[in-house]
Specification:
The chain is built from three helices and two strands; from the N terminus they run H-H-H-E-E. It has 91 residues and is mostly helical.
Length: 91
């Protein structure tokens, strides 16, 4: 599979990015290089690999309990009020 200039133009349009013809060609070459590398990875023989590693994605539940903050942390806070950190308003 190879990426065409039209594919790059379509993605740029969806991302609301204006690209020159030179940039389109450069991104096309970069994306095709990535796909070529992935194709090389697909050619690697993994049949003799030992599947001893197991991954788990279990989240351990913990109680949401307020704990007293170390005083050294609060002493070094740039701004604090009522034993809490003061942070800039975001909205």
């Amino acid at each position: 599979m190879s990426i065409t200039i039209d594919n790059v133009k379509q993605v740029a349009h969806l991302a609301r990015i204006k690209m020159s013809d030179e940039e389109l060609a450069r991104f096309q070459n970069s994306l095709n290089g990535i796909l070529d590398f992935v194709e090389q990875l697909n050619q690697v023989d993994c049949s003799n690999m030992d599947n001893t590693v197991q991954y788990t994605s279990q989240l351990h539940e913990r109680a949401d309990v307020a704990v007293k903050c170390d005083s050294a942390v609060m002493d070094n806070a740039p701004q604090k009020a009522c034993n809490m950190f003061v942070v800039p308003k975001m909205m």
